[in-house]
């Protein structure tokens, strides 16, 4: 192995280590969610699945972590809210706080939306 390969490998390891510890959920005060891997986030939970399977996976995570969860998909942070009352509180009552966070994607569970419509 040549010296440049060793240096590049060590550099990638150090960057991954720094990224992992500098982006912890406790610093950002995000809702709970599953463990995220550096750079890929939670893609291991969603890869090679249909939309129905992804919905079931998210429903399982909601039952495990509560009505609001955080998933990192690649470098994007997604927050899933399954309750209409919590979505109303987050987007209407505290909309000024949520609107200042431009890189979050607010998503709602389709299953709970259908229950509220029926």
TrEMBL record:
Q: Which Pfam families match?
A: p450
What keywords tag this UniProt record?
A: Membrane, Transmembrane, Transmembrane helix
Task: Establish whether keyword Nucleus is in the entry.
Answer: no
Please give the superkingdom of this protein's source: Eukaryota
Q: Where are the transmembrane segments?
A: 6-22
GO molecular function (one): monooxygenase activity
Q: Answer yes or no on keyword Transmembrane helix.
A: yes
Q: This chain belongs to which protein, by name?
A: Uncharacterized protein
Q: Which organism is it from?
A: Capsicum annuum (Capsicum pepper)
């Amino acid at each position: 192995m040549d010296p440049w390969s060793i240096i590049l490998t060590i550099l990638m390891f150090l960057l991954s280590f720094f990224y992992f510890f500098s982006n912890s959920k406790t610093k950002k005060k995000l809702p709970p969610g599953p463990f995220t891997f550096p750079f890929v986030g939670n893609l291991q939970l969603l890869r090679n699945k249909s939309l129905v399977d992804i919905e079931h996976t998210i429903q399982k995570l909601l039952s495990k972590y509560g009505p609001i969860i955080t998933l990192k998909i690649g470098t994007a942070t997604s927050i899933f809210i399954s309750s209409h009352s919590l979505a109303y509180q987050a987007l209407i009552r505290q909309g000024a706080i949520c609107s200042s966070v431009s890189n979050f994607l607010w998503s709602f569970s389709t299953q709970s939306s259908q229950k509220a419509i029926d």
